[in-house]
TrEMBL record:
The reaction(s) this protein catalyses: D-glucose 6-phosphate + NADP(+) = 6-phospho-D-glucono-1,5-lactone + NADPH + H(+)
Annotated signal sequence range: none
Pathway(s) of this molecule: Carbohydrate degradation; pentose phosphate pathway; D-ribulose 5-phosphate from D-glucose 6-phosphate (oxidative stage): step 1/3
Any one annotated GO CC term: cytosol
Annotated protein name in UniProt: Glucose-6-phosphate 1-dehydrogenase
Region annotated Disordered, chain positions: 1-30
Name of encoding gene: LOC111110098
GO biological process: glucose metabolic process; pentose-phosphate shunt, oxidative branch
MF terms (GO), sorted A to Z: glucose-6-phosphate dehydrogenase activity; NADP binding
């Protein structure tokens, strides 16, 4: 999709990586940034790359659960952005379906605060809602689906996308009714988009997968993990397989450890009842972080076709043994008496959380990939709520220099860091001579910060990419059934043991880095944290 854009970038005289020290930065030179000389119309390039399988074909996008939070906060805003930018087929219609008695105007008012509409776009927004409608109906009776199908058929022969923004408890009845009443006819296709959670453990996940497989083909099912739509997650494959410098060292000979982190600075804040049912392992680690791990660890696929990539990801998952509780740290945040506002409230102070709950809000887990490339290299997954910052990143720490000739303690390990959010960036932490008369070493970085290097280019939202992929039929960034099964195989024994034994999580203060025992576990598995260097967002 971005091929033409990348080709134009390659043809331009672009500046090199910025090299910066912790307390300043070296000048980039007299290069004039490409975006300042010529603004590429990236959207037009995307439009040229889209193929919808038949000119003039109509498309209907159905949002099941249109009255819910996900629909108003993510799906309707995303559909609006794609419509605004001309990235959906010309004859595309949108239908919301839910049990609530409401109108399309009600939907509009609920979604509007999240749609980021400029004054100059209000007429376009009116046009968008003219191709929207809403139908109220039951999830378990065919009458409402017959009404939905009638509305779809009024658009003519069309391709159909059904987005299930629904609780898993109604998946079975909804998909049965879709299969019986609402499938496309003739040469037109149907695609089903399913949101997580995909079950609670291996058994329930397999039950859901078997149910869907009995109704739809695998190529019709799009299991969405929105982290796979993020810019820097998608960049992992390019960094790995399009840069020769990484090939010789991307293995157990060069890498000491890999840390994949997800940190949130806020707690459950009144939503603890839902969180307590699933927990942070199911919410973040078993899906988002494990998917990132597969992209870091996978072998080079034969092509960039969806099946080739997903085959390699499955091979990685098959090489991982179930997580052991001995290699896990569980934490739960408590109120910080020195904090402000919500920071004074601990997890158990949330009135929606069951009294005495031992559900962890922080987890560090060590996984080992047992194959020739990664034998002995720990993959450390960390995620938590109510921490000191918002951050998601991949930190690849390389091994120590053999035969270090410099003063003891000066030389630190090299690290390649892929910062997923916020402030997307790729930087390589390395050593350089301290400026001046001394011959000491100093930590510095080769830094590609996206908001500096591509400052005139707006990165699309993850949902924009993924919904666009559904239209184009690309399943590269969606989870296949065997991927899902292997992921649950890795975490189900741990989840069941935690639920059975209810080990008491370690307390950590709201706004801290998490429990110190997490750092101790990382150190035990060959990750060195010195705290001597911190990446700073480059100044514009």
């Amino acid at each position: 999709m971005y091929r033409e854009y990348k080709q134009k970038l390659a043809e331009k005289d672009t500046p090199p990586f910025r090299m910066s020290r912790q307390h300043g930065s070296f000048p980039v030179g007299k290069h004039t940034r490409m975006a300042e000389r010529e603004k590429l119309d990236v959207l037009s390039l995307l439009r040229e790359g889209l193929k919808y399988g038949g000119t003039g074909a109509s498309h209907v996008f159905v949002i099941l659960g249109a009255s819910g939070d996900l629909a108003k906060k993510k799906i309707y805003p995303t559909l609006w952005w794609l419509y605004r930018d001309g990235l959906v087929p010309e004859k595309t219609y949108f239908i919301g379906y839910a049990r609530s008695k409401m109108s399309i105007e009600d939907i509009r008012q609920k979604a509007l605060p999240f749609m980021k509409v400029k004054d100059s776009e209000k007429q376009k927004l009116d046009e968008f809602f003219k191709v929207n409608e809403y139908i109220a109906g039951s999830y378990d009776k065919p009458d409402g689906f017959a009404k939905l199908n009638k509305a779809i058929e009024e658009k003519g022969s069309c391709n159909r996308i059904f987005y299930l923004a629904l609780p898993p408890s109604v998946y079975e009845s909804v998909t049965l009714n879709l299969k019986a009443v609402c499938m496309s006819k003739g040469d037109k296709w149907t695609r089903i988009v399913v949101e997580k959670p995909f079950g609670k453990d291996l058994e329930s996940s397999n039950q859901l997968s078997n149910h869907l497989a009995a109704l739809f083909k695998e190529e019709e099912i799009y299991r969405i993990d929105h982290y796979l739509g993020k810019e820097m997650v998608q960049n992992l494959m390019v960094l790995r397989f399009a840069n020769k410098i990484f090939s010789p060292i991307w293995n157990r000979d060069g890498i000491a450890s890999v840390v994949i982190s997800f940190k949130e600075p806020f707690g459950t804040q009144g939503r603890g009842g839902y969180f307590d049912e699933f927990g942070i392992i199911r919410d973040v680690m078993q899906n988002h972080l494990l998917q990132i791990l597969t992209l870091v660890a996978m072998e080079k696929p034969p092509t960039t076709a969806a099946e080739d990539i997903r085959n390699e990801k499955v091979k990685v998952l098959k090489s991982i043994s179930p997580v052991e509780l001995d290699n896990v740290v569980l934490g739960q945040y408590v109120g910080n008496p020195d904090g402000e506002g919500d920071q004074k409230q601990g997890y158990l102070d949330d009135p929606t959380v069951p009294k005495g709950s031992t559900t962890p809000t922080f987890v560090t887990a060590v996984l080992m990939v047992k194959n020739e490339r990664w034998e002995g290299v720990p993959f450390i997954l960390r995620c938590g709520k109510a921490l000191n910052e918002r951050k998601a990143e991949v930190r690849i720490q390389f091994k120590d220099i053999a035969g270090d000739i410099f003063p003891s303690g000066d030389v630190k390990r090299n690290e390649l860091v892929i910062r997923v959010q916020p402030d997307e960036a790729v930087y390589l932490k390395m050593m350089t001579k301290s400026p001046g008369m001394s011959f000491g070493c100093e930590e510095t970085e080769l830094d590609l910060s996206y908001n500096s290097r591509y400052k005139d280019l707006k990165l699309p939202d993850a949902y924009e990419r993924l919904i666009l992929d559904v239209f184009t039929g690309s399943q590269i960034h969606f989870v296949r059934s065997d991927e899902l099964s292997e992921a649950w195989r890795i975490f189900t024994p741990l989840l069941h043991r935690i639920e059975k034994e209810k080990p008491k999580p370690i307390s950590y203060k709201y706004g801290s880095r998490g429990p110190p025992e997490s750092d101790e576990l990382c150190s035990r598995f060959n990750f060195t944290y010195t705290g001597t260097y911190r990446w700073e967002k480059p100044k514009m």
